[in-house]
Amino acid sequence: MMTIIQKETLSLEAAEAAFRQSYPQFAATHRLDELRGADYSRLGRLGQIYLDYTGGGLYADSQVRAHMELLLGHVFGNPHSTNPTSLAMTERVERARAYVLEFFNAAPEEYVVIFTANASGALKLVGEAYPFGPGDHYLLTFDNHNSVNGIREFARAKGAQVTYAPVLPPDLYIDADKLAACLDLARSGGHNLLAYPAQSNFSGVQHSLEWIAQAQAKGWDVLLDAAAFVPTNRLDLGRWQPDFITLSFYKMFGYPTGVGCLLARRAALAKLHRPWFAGGTITVASVQGDRYYLHEGAEAFEDGTLNYLTLPAVEIGLRHLAQIGLDTIHTRVACLTGWLLDQLAALRHHNGMPLVRLYGPVNTSRRGGTITLNFYDSAGHFIDHRLVEQRANEVNISLRTGCFCNPGGGELALGISAEELSACFVRSTERLTFDEFRRCIDDKSTGAVRISVGLVTTFADVYRFIQFAQGFVNYP
How far apart are CA 407 and CA 202, in angstroms? Predict the structure, then answer.
């Protein structure tokens, strides 16, 4: 039975001892505590409690040093040439590209790595180039990131139909029956694209990867948003083979920012038709001849000059994770998440009313290390998430509030109806500020508090968050 912290009863030491007894597998992750002290010591030195890993990962000191030493020890030029410095950089870029494939167990004959600015940039590449046409279909789940939602504008502009498959409160899992029915809507001989997150960045729900092959068997290309999933879970592309995978590297290991990728199956990539060309994407372009010819493979999609000096740091970061072991990271995250869920669900006001409302699964079944919640007072009224963030800032706890660019998940979790939204949008056809929107939906909560654990989260971090949360008991 999990021991629950009551206010001012269990010290950190006693709480950790009880935690380790309830989660004995946590002991196998001790190496991460050592790493925290050696390679991420600035957290302790600066008194920071970092609980925003879904927003961005943290970099190790050793990653930065290795990249700095590489840059200081070589001369690298723009890779779009064949001079010595350009060739040196080209070799490093291709090394990084090859190691991304190796890290995800993606066969080079099957997959291509296209470097982008971030996951959103990778999603835009797919959206603008996918050959939607009248009668085609774009199917996506309710709890997608806005960058996935945005592809619907490309689909509609080309006459394709857009359908949302629902997720079901309170756990926010995909409605399996309705998704199965939606998969039957594929246009035979047409272009049909299914997009969904491997892990929701709103609720932490991990959706089944079994849907990939099931959808493909019914005529769908599958776009998997893996950005929130891959920092703490193994994505084996030898086993699961979506047509397109999008991710941001900073979410995995913190540094560098400004680099993501689109992993695309070669057969699926051949279907895409780019709406323009740019420097670096063509073999030949002519002004007088009014023609252009695109490169094959990745180069046709990497617009302009890559952020080439950062790409060696991608390989350094991936090797850092590989050396630690994703299974070790996954185990740590699962243990700490389970403990947090238990503690949060047990918090009560003096009259027995729950302090928090959790969105998504209340246990570790089919979920990752992202926990989204709202605080409520003893009368059952929500406490503004912006106030929670303000108080967290005062004690150096980094968390995140809002809807996390995931409006579908937020609307369902917070109970905001389609009718309320339609009424707001009819009134405001041009621009709508956040405060106007809030007033329009009768001052309901328009966001939530999100905490997320990751690579070097310690028990002390989550213990201190629970202590912080207890400060809202019997609020105000």
Answer: 9
Q: Does position 425 have pLDDT exceeding 70, yes or no?
A: no
Asked whether residue 228 is assigned to any structural domain, the reply reads yes
**pLDDT classification of 431: cutoffs 50, 70, 90:** confident
| Residue 405 is a catalytic residue | yes
pTM: 0.92
The confidence score (pLDDT) of residue 277 equals 86
- d(Cα 386, Cα 367) in Å, to the nearest integer? 25
**281 and 385 together in one domain:** no
The strand pair at 282-286 and 448-452 is best described as unpaired
Catalytic residue among 261, 405, 424, 440: 405
User: How many Cα atoms sit within 13 Å of 222 on the Cβ side?
Assistant: 21
The mean pLDDT value for 315-322 works out to 98
Specify burial of residue 422 (Cβ count, 10 A radius: 0-12, 13-18, 19+). exposed
pLDDT band at 1 (very low <50, low <70, confident <90, very high): very low
Q: Which domain holds residue 454?
A: 12-61+325-403+447-470
Residues 217-242 have a mean pLDDT of 98
Q: Let me know how long the chain is.
A: 476
Largest CA distance in the chain: 80
248 lies in the same domain as 175: yes
Let me know whether 166 and 231 are in one domain.
yes
Q: Are residues 203 and 119 in the same domain?
A: yes
Partners of 168 in the beta sheet? 173
The Cα 92–Cα 35 span in angstroms is 27
CATH number for the domain spanning 233: value is 3.40.640.10
Q: Tally the domains of the chain.
A: 2
